[in-house]
Amino acid sequence: MTVALVLAAGLAVACVVAVALPFLREPEPESDVLDELDPEERKRLELLEARDRALAALKELEFDHRTGTVSDEDYRAQVGVLRREAAAALRELGGRG
Amino acid sequence: MPELGRAALVVTLGLSLFALVAGTAAALEGRRRLAQSAQNALVASFVSTAVAAAVLLSALLRNDFSFEYVARTTSRALPTAYTISAFWGGQEGSLLLWLLILTGFATAAVHLNRRWARDLIVWVVPVFAAVGSFFAFLLVAVASPFATQAATPDGAGMTPSLQNPYMLAHPPLLYLGYVGLTVPFAFAIAALLSTQLDERWLIATRRWTLFAWAALGIGQLLGAHWAYVEVGWGGYYAWDPVENAALMPWLAATAFLHSVMIQEKRGMLKVWNMLLVLLAFGLALFGTFLTRSGVVNSIHSFTQSSIGAWFLAFIVVVVAVSLVLVFLRLPLLRSPTKLESPVSREAAFLYNNLLLLALCLAILWGVVYPMLSEAVRGEAVVLGRSYYDFFLRIFGLPLLLLMGIGPLIAWRRASLRTLITTFRWPTLVALATGVLLLFLGAGSSIPGLVAYTFSAFVLATIVMEFARGTRARMALGASGWLTAFTSLVARNRRRYGGYVVHAAIVLLAIGVAGSNAFDSVAEAKLERGQSMRIGDYTLTYRSLSERAGANATEIRATLGIRRGGRDLGTLQAGKNAYTVEQQVSNEVGIRSDRLTGEDLFVIAEQIDPNGTVYFRVFVKPLVNLIWLAGLVFLIGSVITLWPDRREQRRLVARAAQVGLPATR
Fold first, then answer.
1. Which domain covers residue B317, as residue numbers?
2. pTM for this prediction
């Protein structure tokens, strides 16, 4: 019983220390503000996702065309659209520096 | 040391509540140290839960019958492996396992994504903490595994049907699946709360969802095999409410895993995907509720308990909060693109989603109908096997066909000419198979014949995809077929691992169709020396034996088996009489034909004192393909789950470009 209570108290103290650790480590921090994405960074992330999506789709289209899953006719219809999407995302990303 | 276990759970509850409140405050007010503190509390809750679990495990292994739980679920005669499985064999222990896995997964998911998606993690922590608080509260206040009593000399033992090696793996795998679905739920809710609805929550949870889905799938197959060899009724799936409870979230997760590809490739179906994640988690909770509340009678459920109302209240809160959040964020979830053609890969995936969801909802209705009818009319009307079989055929067969069609259609749109070219060979293979099977007499079951024909179609498309892909890789410079094949799979694990999983589903479909639509059964009461026939098998009852096992008396009837004049040896079937538990179980005899996948399945239904035995015998064609499907499913899941370094590098580069630290 006593051993159990000592162990339980030890566990509780260790957990309290773990929870308080950020405040014990930095009692007076320079900044306590969460580092979140600002609107510009969010937009940039959105464009990067659009770029990667278009590039991945292009890569898959090329492979599917090579395997024969996509015919020449379907390939020609789609490749231009995907290239334009990727280019648009890249252009806008470039414009944002 | 029950005090230590109780105290550890109280600490877990305190930590979870702190992580919930402090984490929410930190996210709302943007306070960095408080957010870190909440995160530490979540990690610490895993440690304290592990301490509680260690206390219970130790009590089980020491046969400490001063723990009510240990006395109720084990006995001194119980083998050690089953004593360990008693951890999850009872209500309180299994809840503790839920919490242990939950806090463990939460710690891992937060740690793995803490830098790369840190703005999401701030909200993920309180969501995990909310779920953790609920389970910790149940364990502290409603169903404690650390309740004590005056120690008894021996325990009540374990239900005989649970004394089976499958019980060492089947329940933990299901828990890994159920609890694993909390991870995508937590990230989805965090994305809604933080309005960070970019792709990161999907990327962060994709492998977790796959893992949970694979664990649920394999757990269910192991459960089916347990039912087949242990429960002794001659089947493997009875549409039992608790079996359905595991199937429903698996179906919802399957739908999500397909539709998420549409969001990744085309930026579409954002609301739909969000709803599927919420549905999968809601159904996982509902399944846990069904097993524990005592509202259904099932071989798999725990006894009547008071936790049902708590679970129901929690489910209602989870569903209501989730739906309100989705509604509030609808403007942010609008897709930039639309479906371009009803004949495209995304359209095929959408049809697949609708069918999966329809099947899931039909099963859900079958599960809740008896409860509703009891509440309204005072009499529980159970929807039987025919109800479920009907919907399995109506939705399952088109799903099977779509599994072959979807992956071979191009994204965005496909021309008629391409479709004809692509599906020419698979269609011919399917038709040839259908005609051949009809000729061989498989026309006795039309759904079975259709299932086989569709299966041939899907297998042909899979083989074709692998062959074409390998050929393309060779054209790109791979030296030899094997190199080309391995590089093909390694370069697109999701796609080709997915095909392997599809092959597993086809094997499952063939096994289910064969063993259900084309099985046969015979019954006979035999005295020693008498024979019975089923199909081309002849079974001769030779002898009856009795021996004392570790914790049961084992009675076995020995049968000589002949097939077409060939001696196939002997088979034993009988019963075990468990001494401590005062229960008797059927111990079936199974002879598997490795070449054809057929089983001869013998149940000794009744053994009379004079040695006469009433036998029920089944011949189940192709049933072993179901278990083979499990192995193939596991291989496919591992391929899809395997980390992809190229993808990792791409994500890290993308994160660095927006100023997020270049690590995950």
1. 159-363
2. 0.92
